[in-house]
Amino acid sequence: METGIFKPLKNKAYRSLFGAQVFSDLGNWLDFIAVQVIIAYHWELGEAAIASVIIITGIPWVVIGPLASVFVDRLPQKTLMITCLLFRSLFVAGMFFAPNLYVMLLFVFLKATVAALYDPARQSAIRHTVTDDELSEAVTLSQLSVNTMKIIGPAMGGGLIALFGVRSPFIFEAAGFLIAVLILMAMPKIETEPSEKKQEKSYLEDFKEGISHIFSARILKAAITLSSLGFFLIFLYDGLFVFVAQNLGFAGEEFGLLISSVGFGSVVGALLLGRFTSWKKQPIQLMALASVISGLLILLIGVSVYGVFELPKILWIAGVFLLGILASAEGVPFGYVLQSETPKNIMGRVSSAAASLQTFSMLVAPAAGAMLAKWIGVSGVLIGAGIATFFLGTIALAINMKKNVEAKSIGA
């Protein structure tokens, strides 16, 4: 475990950060099933109630996170992360005792708010604890944790509900956050740069500094734009995927196999990118190429749903597995660019702004996808999203190649 993807784990500070992230990511997904089961089965509420949870979860990331990110950069990251985790465990307890939807939504909102503060602090802490040479591996490990817990968390949550009751995942989630607190308490102090000048600036000046950096850093701006547009296109059809599975001949019990295949593909993709790191010389190129191939795959699925041809189920499972790999081929380079192209002292502000744009895309896209599906059908949405994703990647590749040629000619 001393070479390759696991190299940053030799660093005690990063090891603590990663350990805390694993429990934090697990907690985020443990209640994913529990909240929906309580709302749909116990309170017998409909789709609007489930949608309200998704919207309430996203609002803090879009609005509160960027506005509060100035304070994330000013405060000690270790203390801030521990405080956020303690509050998250407290709010999860509130979700455990919630008697109705409105109280549940209140605690979901509060939990998402502190999560929107915790993540930029964690991103900033990564930037301060690993060397530039280890950034790609550190980011890959972080992405690996996210992708793995997306698989383990819901499955574990479902198992806990079956064994101990519908609210039991909240108990384990709170315990996970407290374990993460203990891990972070053992983390060495994070050495940050002197902040005398930073303290002299007003809140508005600090806030503008983070935004202006995004617009001035070409590679970072390209990565955030490509990632946000990519998220929008993915979530256009993501909520319709259950109908896609039906059209492809998958039974209800087989739908989980498709979703798991995407998850496993994303884990394998992260491991491959951690093993072979030559992509970090051209991260935008990899993101764009992944977008091109993803677009072709989505287009292929859409054409099949339309009824043009049929394929064996095993090939569709392999296809969505490849989509998972390609998702990592976009997500990991994005995380690397975010870290490598951002100065340490504004990491919180920049990562919050990026998360805000991505989350906004994720919130807007499902409604747009549902409306489009009524107009042009599920296959039409997939075909449109596939074509758009393909051209997004193609345009990004062309622009990136042009910029590289210009940079070489100037250097010459």
Automatic annotation (TrEMBL):
It comes from Mesobacillus subterraneus. CDD domains: MFS_MefA_like. Residues 1-403 form the Major facilitator superfamily (MFS) profile domain. One of its GO terms (cellular component) is plasma membrane. The lineage of its organism: Bacteria, Bacillati, Bacillota, Bacilli, Bacillales. The chain crosses the membrane at residues 21-43, 49-73, 85-110, 170-188, 222-243, 255-274, 286-309, 315-338, 350-369, 375-399. GO terms for molecular function: transmembrane transporter activity. Pfam families: MFS_1 (PF07690). SUPFAM superfamilies: MFS general substrate transporter. It is found in: Cell membrane. Its main location: membrane. Keywords: Cell membrane, Membrane, Transmembrane, Transmembrane helix, Transport. This is Macrolide transporter. The keyword Thylakoid does not apply.
